[in-house]
Amino acid sequence: MKISTDLAIKSATLIATTVGIGFLAGKVTQPGIESWFVHVEKPFFNPPGWLFAPVWSVLYVLMAIAAARVWSNTKAEVAVIRKVLLFWWVQLALNAAWSFLFFGLKNPLLALIEIVVLELLIYETYLQFKKIDGLAAKLLIPYMLWVAFATILNASIWWLN
């Protein structure tokens, strides 16, 4: 499949933006991991710390490509695309906010409430993307599944502590 220049430019722009936001969220996360999170009781299924950076890197790239596909769609109305992409931008902001709530404020309960809202918004973004581009929607499925796992992990940490 030949990738259009428009899609390539939009993908690169959104990958850089998404990974950049993820990097900034990681900067908020790091001090909390080093000072607070090491002392928090975690469930038996808590993944090793080294796993998070590569998983999130892949998820951010998939999210960005999905959004770029929707943004590049020439068949949907511009107003519809803008509305659908607004869902994507809000979920990305909530994604970054979770790091601040959980690791910055060290508040697993507030982070749990927020991540449930995030998961619902990711699902709504998936449904909206599906109306415009089926592949774009499918690219969000790994992200949706990882955030569902993260929600269970977050709830477990709140419960244990």
In words, what does this structure look like?
The protein has 161 residues and is mainly alpha-helical. The chain is 80% helix and 0% strand. α1 packs parallel to α3, α3 runs antiparallel to α4 and α4 packs antiparallel against α6. It is elongated. It starts with a helix and ends with a helix. The model has no long low-confidence stretch (mean pLDDT 94).
Features:
single chain, elongated, 6 helices, mainly alpha, 161 residues
Biggest sheet overview: none
Count of DSSP H/I helices: 6
Distance between the termini: 50 Å
Order of helices and strands: HHHHHH
Arithmetic mean pLDDT: 94
Give the low-confidence spans: none
Secondary structure topology:
Layout: H1 5-35, H2 52-71, H3 78-104, H4 108-132, H5 134-139, H6 141-160
Report a brief summary of the structure:
The chain has helices at 5-35, 52-71, 78-104, 108-132, 134-139, 141-160.
